[in-house]
Amino acid sequence: MKAAPLTSIRARQREKRAQRHPLLRYWDLYLMVLPALIFLIIFKYVPMYGVVIAFKDYNLIQGVFHSKWVGLQYFRELFTFDEFPRVIRNTLLISLMKLIVGFPAPIALALLLNELRLEKFKRSVQTVTYLPHFISWVVIGGIAVDLLSPNSGIVNKLIQALGFEPIFFLSDEKMFRWILVLSDTWKEIGWGAIIYLAALLGINEELFQAATVDGAGRLRQIWHISLPGIRSTIVILLLLRIGHVLDAGFEQVLVMYNPTVYDVGDIIDTYVFRVGLGTMQFGLTTAAGLFKSVIGCILLVLANTIARRMGEEGIY
């Protein structure tokens, strides 16, 4: 008998491997994702049992499972607070302002950086713009106070040098929200631009060359090639942003606000922090967090459904 050719033996081996269960076929890929999956389960899913605190009169000594069950009592208290409508309004307004101003900003920065041809200058701008992402809000809050102080702030010194009266920026209800929006945009614009730059690199360069041959300028190429090329990335990030519409930035607001701007700056998180944790009402704070999560989940599902009906892939 003649020995089977080596190529046919290898072909049969590949065919047998292809017929195996996906877990066995791609065991190396599943092994790589295992640490991230374990991290997600331990720090995201396991702590979810604490949601039951929203329905119990939680006692530190009795623990989660032995505390008295009170049902929807904390939700009723939350919705009947006189200040709760104002807090909801502030949260939505600040989030929408950040969405309108802060969401397009990284897209514009990424498009501008993509047009640069000097690599050293491009990398320098990228570094300068995304470094603020790694700065704590505590530090940024201190910088804001130093810059905007009515007595010693650089901004007010310039205003006084021009002959005007100093402005109490962080105590002015008309300006406080805009300070939150602009500082948040400055902090995150470079980090967000990285994602869009990566998406722009995936666009076929031949499309730009063909557009140049047809006489299209840079603005037309951006409008007809670059933006459509990153549309799916924009949609996905927008959906994720909508899911966090009730997260207006707890750390930022807590560091920057003061009692004089509570009417325009107090959001759900800071209100719960002051009223709930300040009086050790853990059930109330958990109820507020659960309320935020449910609303965010509903908005995410609705936005994803609309996106899929418009022809986009969505996030699931």
Automatic annotation (TrEMBL):
Record Gene3D superfamilies: MetI-like
Pfam families in the cross-refs: BPD_transp_1 (PF00528)
TM regions (residue ranges): 26-46, 92-113, 125-145, 189-208, 229-246, 282-303
Keywords: Membrane, Transmembrane, Transmembrane helix, Transport
Keyword flag Transport: yes
Membrane topology classification: Multi-pass membrane protein
InterPro entries: MetI-like, MetI-like_sf
Domain of life: Bacteria
PROSITE patterns documented for this protein: ABC_TM1
Cellular localisation: Cell membrane; Membrane
Domain ABC transmembrane type-1: 88-303
Signal sequence extent: none
Entry's family note: Belongs to the binding-protein-dependent transport system permease family.
Protein name: ABC transporter permease subunit
Organism: Paenibacillus chondroitinus
Organism placement in taxonomy: Bacteria, Bacillati, Bacillota, Bacilli, Bacillales
